[in-house]
Amino acid sequence: MPENETTAPSLENLLHETRAFPPSPAFAAQANAQPELYEAAEADRLEFWAQQARELVTWSTPFTQTLDWSGAPVAKWFADGKLNAAYNAVDRHVEAGLGDRVALHFEGEPGDTRTVTYADLQQEVSRAANALTSLGVEKGDRVVIYLPMLVESVVAMLACARIGAPHSVVFGGFSADALRSRIADAEAKLVVTADGGYRRGAPSALKPAVDEAIAPKDGEPATTVEHVLVVRRTGQDVAWTEGRDVWWHEALEAADTFHEPVAVDAEHPLFILYTSGTTGKPKGILHTTGGYLTQAAYTHKNVFDLKAETDVYWCTADIGWVTGHTYVVYGPLTNGATQVLYEGTPDTPHRGRWWELVEKYKVSILYTAPTAIRTCMKWGEDIPAGFDLSSLRVLGSVGEPINPEAWMWYRRVIGGDTAPIVDTWWQTETGAIMISPLPGVTATKPGSAQVALPGIVADVVDDEAHSVPDGGGGYLVLSEPWPAMLRGIWGDLQRFKDTYWSRFEGLYFAGDGAKKDEDGDIWLLGRVDDVMNVSGHRLSTTEIESALVSHDIVAEAAVVGANDETTGQAVVAFVILRGEHADRGATPEGAAQVQEELRAHVAKEIGPIAKPRRILVVAELPKTRSGKIMRRLLRDVAENRTVGDATTLADSSVMDLIAAGLSSAKPGSED
Ligand code: WTA
């Protein structure tokens, strides 16, 4: 199946939003980004980026070339320049006399805190870089990081960057199997992990998953991992392999606090981050150093209007996702920001935890996901009303379309009706924000990401790649290369070309449906491929289907993302059981048992985030005559809609059977 199997987005639900919120004159006057920024980028796009790269990033060897697109679609930005990302994020601020500035206000889930200045960070990153070196990690070697949200997580990423070893952070919620495939694909030499982390008030183990992930399995050899560096977080007992496992604190204590950052080429790999695609295997998205850092810093400064001396910034994303890479680590630290780093969940120990932190640290810029906002809406506005949120002056949203109701609630209840909201569209692949209002310039509209940032060229096109007129809908594309763009899929250039560059000649195809409103503003309409978006996390239908059919009792599976009020989408699976197990789905108890068994299996194969909300045992799946599963029809069923046009089905009675079986099924338990 081609990677880009697409269906045109529905234009039925076109929004007619007339509300607009221009920036206050006071905000506009002080904003970093002024209207001239668009003009400068328009006048000479490449020179504009070169200027950003010179102003926001420190180069040990200045670049003379801006963009080399001769190897398209693999771009080279600032290729003859050299720099070090960790030096930019840490050392240069200390050299500028800002060593005492707080870089991180760490807040652990149990309430323990730690204040880390830029000078502290320099020492710790230097020690960690020396420790990695003494464990045999060299420039170009890959390091997998599998950690909760800790100071050490930021330090580990920067230590890798400091020695030129690309990191690959794997979200701590992924299972041992998911971790194993990522370690194997990246051929990692070392893994950094922790004994465990705190989750909802209790310690939860992490290291056993690493032990399992790197051991030999089912005839597959052990992975390439030589050492496991273990942060002590919870103090729980861990199994220990002498010679392989090393305590983080011991390695760092033994290491020198001086380390000379390794200057690397602008195109040296900075990280690989795995993300779900439309086929089973996650893609290792490759980002390099100079262009990525430039756009990370540029967007962070202008989209959030960062004033490094006075702002307290907080991005709630986990470092396991790209938002954590660009807007917890590289963007804010390169800009010398002070930020909050929080280990836990919004509702532990109480549902006002986030707002308590905003009050405590006087957070002025908050960046979070629509699913979190909708959850807080559900809990009720009296909870945030109990805290002083008056320090907030800019609010950001990312990860999925934000519905106008949630947008209005965010602005009114959290932003005191004054803080501008920036709805930022981007992807793991784009590396940094691409489409967003500028808070001092744009009159914001609830629900729309609106305009490409200065320096970015985006469009909405129809099936034939023609730009649609205002009021029209189609596919979101990016027409010109941008500095933070992915440089490929790790080890698979062909897949990179097929996935992003083959749908429309010469255009980057993002996989999102979009429309332009009457003003030409862009509205994102969700994915048009088989990628789901659950609580702002990307999940692949095929990946979950593969996990389901890897269970002994499953013959066939089809997965869809059904609309969900809180999480955006929810995973719903339809499974056909193997002949000898077919009876198990016949009774409600049997079906419930199958559902729980398979949910647990998906959690083991991929991780708890991928667990289907509902799993329905069916006798048949709707297929076209050519054998393609018609997910559109299953989505209708999952969303309790009348099933749409089923005339292309090989057997049209299938949908009646499925709908009949459905009424007795119950959703799985929430967790
Ligand atoms: C979706 C997260 C609408 C989109 C940074 C994209 C959004 C995918 C928005 C990338 C937004 C992200 N409005 N949709 N503001 N931001 N998306 O790689 O479908 O985890 O393709 O990157 O999230 O998800 P990823």
UniProtKB/TrEMBL annotation:
Its cofactor is Mg(2+). ATP binds at residues 399-401, 423-428, 512, 527, 538. This is Acetyl-coenzyme A synthetase. Keywords: Acetylation, ATP-binding, Ligase, Magnesium, Metal-binding, Nucleotide-binding. Catalyzes the conversion of acetate into acetyl-CoA (AcCoA), an essential intermediate at the junction of anabolic and catabolic pathways. AcsA undergoes a two-step reaction. In the first half reaction, AcsA combines acetate with ATP to form acetyl-adenylate (AcAMP) intermediate. In the second half reaction, it can then transfer the acetyl group from AcAMP to the sulfhydryl group of CoA, forming the product AcCoA. The gene is acs. GO terms for molecular function: acetate-CoA ligase activity. Residues 97-490 form the AMP-dependent synthetase/ligase domain.
